[in-house]
Amino acid sequence: MTTLSTDRISEPFVDNTTEIVIERPPQIIGGSTFASITETVCGVSENKAPAAWWLALLVAVSLLGMLQGLILFLVLTGVGVWGNNIPVAWGFPIVNFVFWVGIGHAGTLISAILYLFRQSWRTSINRFAEAMTIFAVICALIWPGIHIGRPWLPYWMFPYPNQMGMWPQFRSPLLWDVFAVGTYFSVSLVFWYMGLIPDIATLRDRSRSKIRQIAYGVLSLGWRGSNRHWHRYERAYLLLAALCTPLVLSVHSVVSFDFAVSQVPGWHSTIFPPYFVAGAIYGGFAMVLLLAIPCRKWFKLEKIITARHIDNMAKVMLATGLIVTLAYATEFFIAWYSMNVYEQFTFENYYTGPFKWAFGMLIFCNVIFPQCLWIRPLRENMAVLMAASMSVTIGMWFERFWIIIMSLTRTHLPSAWGSYCPSWVDICMFAGSFGLFFTLFLLFVRFLPVVNMAEVRSVMPEAHHQGEPWGEHEDMDEVADRMHGSAPEAHHG
């Protein structure tokens, strides 16, 4: 049985990435206690915001205002302001839709799948990863909503009884998107909110102003922390995690069906579902790192989101990057092995055609640059890690550009070939979607618990009789009973 020495836990440094053979490195460092965890996390909402947060919010709100203005301009003018044409009827809007749906995958993966596998290192990062999922899917849903031409009639996509006796075309893959993404968003939202309830109750109990007491009191749904509450919370959280897990795999698979069921060269491939899922997790983890690194710095969360958490996420990003690289190679192999001249020409056009620069960007950002993460000193360097995460985010957008636009410009008939150039509205709306995402995320960081305090406490040595970290030798229910069952409320009702 391994034990954690007290002197190691109280070490002042924040680097706990060193592998120790005879003991497990602590997940929370700096001599943290239950009280200090509460003070640190609640302090993000209760203390004065740093200047960097205000600056970031100013930039994000400005971009969001630009997005709102451009959506109004689009509604008043029509979709002709975009660069879409024939044959590229799916331009930037669908590229952006698939990109944002992919970003939304890592949050649910960290929360649900790692929870089911009892990976306790997720506890420090799962909260804002889940929030990232919600906000990314909101950004994704904008694009099909305004791409339909008449954005005031999106409810026609839903099967509801109406006087015209008309139903949606259920055989259309685009309708599958409506149900897949809608279901994923609904379940992820409930899962995220369920995990927030105990921590919102903590903020409610610490609030001094009447407005905060009322707001957090409503959101906490009457949580008292009794044994019955904890028991039902644990069961509901486990069931939602089990429900979310297949959704992670299904949503982007369904999105890939939009392409895979068509006859367009470059799209008609059975590798698309696993390829899209791996790519979504790859891009999602890159975005989690982009959010986690500045957050831990601005709000002094280094003792909770440690260097080991960052290192683990970098390793997952590297592993999924290799899967994506294999998928690229497999696509080219399938095109060559199929002996289909149209398919072969399409793939040859990727690196010799007019958009070969975009394909080069994709390969450099997604395949070449992230390989620097194999070197440990570079992986532990936050500046390099931020650059690698930014590279992957850019590369994943170019991957969607490659699949959608480059394939549509060169189809079966040369007489149907065309080109594509995004308009200024396309580019500014894409930038504005980042404004929406970061505005929502920055407000979340400021007003809701950015770290799951209840779960973080469960992985601390104080939560265990023998000082064992959670998940190594004990059942989670035993830990929860011991942590929360000793409260006086545990014996009521």
Characterise this structure:
The chain is globular. The N terminus and C terminus are likely disordered. With 493 residues, it is mostly helical. The protein has 18 helices and no strands. 66% of the residues lie in helices and 0% in strands.
Mean pLDDT: 85
Tally of contiguous helical segments: 18
- Largest sheet at a glance? none
Q: Tell me the series of helices and strands, N- to C-terminal.
A: HHHHHHHHHHHHHHHHHH
Percent helix, as a range, is 55-70%
Low-pLDDT ranges:
1-13, 467-474, 485-493
Strand proportion: under 5%
Going by helix content, strand content and strand pairing, the class is mainly alpha
Beta-strand segment tally: 0
Multimer state: single chain
Task: Please state the CA-atom Rg, rounded to the nearest Å.
Answer: 24 Å
| Shape, per Cα inertia axes | globular
Spatial gap, N to C terminus: 38 Å
Blueprint of the fold:
Blueprint: H1 6-9, H2 34-46, H3 51-77, H4 92-103, H5 105-116, H6 126-147, H7 173-206, H8 210-219, H9 227-260, H10 272-298, H11 307-338, H12 341-352, H13 356-368, H14 376-379, H15 382-409, H16 424-447, H17 453-458, H18 476-484
Helix pairs in contact: 3-16, 4-6, 4-10, 4-15, 5-6, 5-9, 5-10, 6-7, 6-16, 7-8, 7-9, 9-10, 9-18, 10-11, 10-15, 12-13, 13-15
